[in-house]
Recover the amino acids of this structure.
């Protein structure tokens, strides 16, 4: 009954949000309005793409501003006076990609093209925005200042794109070629902030504020730091999911309870979908939860193949085996969705994870050290460039030179994808029942 009640409430909430999107109307003529830039500008061949919130209206719009010297200087937090025709989200499909649904999932109520000369920058002011949006803009502006510090350190081009994506969740500088290298090699997940990144940050924060006598303060400080980082990177669903799971784990560890992974994952999904029902259709949301669900359920079965007593006597092999089982479990959970949405299966995903996970850990630590130190900034930034260069070279080797690096052209239907998950769940249940009878 609880399951049916939650499902019914979710259906009602989703229907309400859908009606709100369908009722969005814009004037048929060109209108003048003020808006505030709330995303890092992305340079297109002929335009500069930015996300804007209309002042006084509160609706979010995807804007394409004609590219010139003025639009290239746009920055997050700027207040603009614009004159353009705002349209409803376009219906555009390519394969399984629904552009209109993508915009609605990410909160866009419309889109517009602004010609050169039809806009000007005003004095920066966030008046007219809700308090929550102003708080979020404060964090995003601080993230922008950190991104500028990366450039001041001499980190640019592909190295900057990777460091910005891995540490601060900004993928605006990623080129199509670099995205393809990470996608074909099976390393795209390290560019999207998730449980891997927040787990590393949580361990670092726990070490910095460690204290057995002040365990409550230690865990509370680490959780506060995790949520501050989530705000800093814009609260994507994968980060919110990971932050909620870490928070539940950290707080319940104070009363010496076991790690409630599956319950914490369910709680995170429930909260996110209550706040934003359309997140269910977000590819990032689906991949994030599918990967974590597989890790929580399948990874312990894979890990049990090798004797735990033997693994405890061999720490290096224990780490390698743990990394391998997590990688395989996550791949089992996400491979059907990746095939459905992107038509690809990366055959060297296991080799790739042995490369990217240690590199990601080093990149996060070196980036933090470069940002907070004064006298050793050059040393850490050069070390960071070296690690990123090594990572990009290794992934390029996997994505370009190794044979049969990926299986392309996979286009399963939605029914076929669902049936694959039914088979995976059935096999999991059979193995669980078999283990209980041993």
């Amino acid at each position: 009954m609880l399951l049916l009640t939650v499902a019914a409430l979710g259906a009602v909430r989703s229907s309400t949000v859908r009606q709100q999107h369908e009722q969005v109307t814009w004037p048929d003529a060109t209108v003048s309005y003020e808006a505030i830039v709330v995303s890092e500008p992305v340079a297109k061949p002929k335009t500069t793409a930015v996300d804007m919130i209309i002042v006084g209206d509160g609706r979010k719009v995807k804007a394409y501003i004609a590219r010139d010297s003025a639009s290239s200087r746009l920055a997050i937090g700027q207040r603009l006076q614009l004159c353009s025709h705002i349209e409803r989200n376009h219906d555009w499909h390519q394969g399984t990609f629904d552009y209109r649904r993508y915009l609605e999932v990410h909160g866009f109520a419309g889109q517009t093209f602004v010609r050169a000369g039809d806009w000007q920058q005003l004095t920066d002011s966030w008046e007219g925005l809700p308090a929550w949006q102003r708080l979020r803009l404060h964090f995003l502006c601080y993230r922008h200042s950190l991104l500028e510090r990366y450039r001041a350190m001499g980190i640019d081009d592909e190295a900057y794109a990777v460091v910005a994506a891995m540490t601060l969740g900004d993928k605006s500088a990623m080129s199509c070629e670099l995205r393809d290298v990470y996608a074909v090699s099976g390393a795209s997940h390290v560019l999207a902030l998730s449980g891997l990144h927040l787990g590393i940050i949580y361990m670092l924060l726990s070490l910095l504020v460690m204290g057995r006598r002040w365990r409550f303060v230690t865990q509370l400080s680490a959780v506060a730091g995790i949520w501050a980082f989530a705000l800093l990177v814009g609260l994507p669903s994968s980060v919110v999911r990971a932050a909620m799971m870490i928070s539940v784990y950290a707080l319940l560890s104070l009363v010496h309870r076991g790690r409630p992974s599956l319950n914490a994952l369910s709680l995170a999904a429930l909260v996110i979908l209550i706040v934003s029902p359309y997140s269910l259709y977000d590819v990032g949301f689906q991949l994030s939860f599918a990967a974590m669900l597989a890790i929580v359920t399948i990874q312990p079965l894979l890990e049990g193949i090798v004797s735990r007593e033997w693994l405890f006597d061999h720490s290096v092999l224990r780490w390698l085996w743990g990394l391998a089982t997590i990688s395989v479990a996550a791949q089992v959970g996400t491979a059907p969705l990746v095939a459905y949405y992107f038509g690809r299966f990366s055959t060297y995903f296991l080799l790739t994870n042995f490369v990217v996970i240690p590199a990601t850990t080093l990149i996060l630590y070196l980036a933090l050290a470069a940002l907070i130190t004064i006298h050793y900034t050059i040393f850490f930034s050069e070390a960071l460039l070296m690690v990123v260069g090594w990572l990009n070279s290794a992934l390029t080797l996997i994505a370009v030179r190794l044979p049969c690096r990926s299986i392309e052209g996979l286009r399963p239907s939605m029914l076929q994808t669902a049936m694959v998950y039914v088979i995976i769940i059935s096999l999991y249940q059979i193995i669980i029942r078999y283990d209980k009878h041993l």
User: Anything to note?
Assistant: The chain has a mean pLDDT of 85. The CA atoms of residues 60 and 107 lie 6 Å apart. The first strand starts at residue 31 and ends at 37. The first helix runs from residue 2 to 22.
